UniProtKB/TrEMBL annotation:
Species whose genome carries this gene: Cladorrhinum samala
Record-given protein name: Alpha/beta hydrolase fold-1
Keywords from the named record: Hydrolase
Domain named AB hydrolase-1: residues: 38-312
InterPro entries: AB_hydrolase_1, AB_hydrolase_fold
Length: 322
């Protein structure tokens, strides 16, 4: 059952974050996953509510199978969904806090949550973490993991759902139409249109409602395959599942949606680059099975919306491994 809460971070007393907590185990009942916390990290477009269907499927399926479910936490970042704006953002500009600030906020949120829910001392190790992420939530998870001191490496697993390509401006995915030969079915006008649309929607300089400044993200994470994810609890490498979108479905959505970029252009330039990026992510740890990217059949970029059952199944499988 969802318990909706509001929390004010000690480090930012001027605003509150909205979060939802799910627990399927009655108080006092033994749960071998009671020291695990599953945290969901949103992209820019979908807020915490977008995880609810996957969470419902997860809890229902594990309950029917007689399997325990740990505590699950979703939250809206500052300026996103139901949360208030970041009180430290400067006025008069669409650019506010950057990914580094988001990581610091996440650390503070989990510190306070662990102190309340797990009775963890302020400097204690805290629960084992599983991070389930979509889009920009994936690079945020990588930055958060890299920020942990050695005595607080508590991330036991990651699930990356169609990670944002953090090291591109998106426009440069497409070559200059006047300087390169074009594949069959792609005209110079098609390329110019794609460059314009991706510049309008996805360039790091494009502002967003939560005022998350992405302009330095490529400098923070210039590579998809490094730095390595740090070891988790007990010094063991964290489990990692990398899931990419269905190329055909994504191309279809790009053509028919507000982008109106043709499938030929997406399949010639965007999907191959994204596939290579996802393949690089599988090398961030030694526990990615066969270093393979799983493809979410029939899903576009928002996998948790297009196939919540798949997301629930992947989370459940990872929990079984823990």
């Amino acid at each position: 059952m969802e318990e909706r809460r509001s929390i004010t971070l000690d480090t930012k007393p001027g605003a509150s974050l909205k979060l939802s907590v799910y627990s399927s185990t009655p108080p006092g009942e033994y749960n071998p996953l009671s020291d695990v916390l599953v945290v969901f990290l949103n992209g820019l477009m979908l807020h915490r509510a977008a995880w609810s269907d996957a969470i419902s499927h997860l809890i229902d399926s594990r309950t029917r199978a007689g399997k325990p479910t740990p505590t699950l936490l979703t939250y809206d970042r500052y300026g996103q969904g139901e949360s208030e704006p970041d009180p430290t953002d400067p006025p008069g500009t669409p650019y506010g806090h950057d990914a580094g600030a988001v990581v610091s906020d996440l650390d503070q949120l989990l510190t306070q949550f662990a102190r309340t829910e797990y009775k963890t001392p302020t400097e204690g190790p805290g629960p084992r973490l599983v991070l389930v992420c979509n889009s920009i939530g994936c690079p945020l998870a990588r930055l958060y993991a890299a920020s942990r001191p050695p005595d607080r490496h508590r991330i036991a697993g990651f699930i990356f759902l169609d990670s944002m390509m953090a090291n591109t401006d998106f426009v440069s995915l497409f070559p200059d139409p006047g300087k390169h030969p074009l594949p069959e079915g792609v005209s110079p006008e098609d390329l110019r249109h794609a460059r314009q649309k991706f510049a309008e929607y996805f360039h790091p300089s494009v502002a967003n409602p939560e005022r998350l400044d992405r302009r330095n993200l490529a400098e923070m994470l210039p590579h998809s395959d490094k730095p390595q994810l740090p070891p988790g609890p007990g010094g063991q490498p964290p489990r990692l599942v990398v899931i990419g979108h269905d190329w055909d479905e994504f191309a279809e959505q790009c053509e028919k949606g507000s982008l109106s970029v043709s499938k030929q252009v997406i399949n010639a330039y965007v999907n191959p680059a994204w596939g290579a990026y996802n393949e690089g992510l599988t090398h961030l740890t030694t526990t990615t099975k066969e270093n393979k990217v799983k493809i979410a059949k029939g899903c576009g970029h928002f996998i948790q919306k297009d196939d919540p059952v798949l997301v629930a199944t992947e989370i459940s499988d990872l929990l079984d491994e823990l």
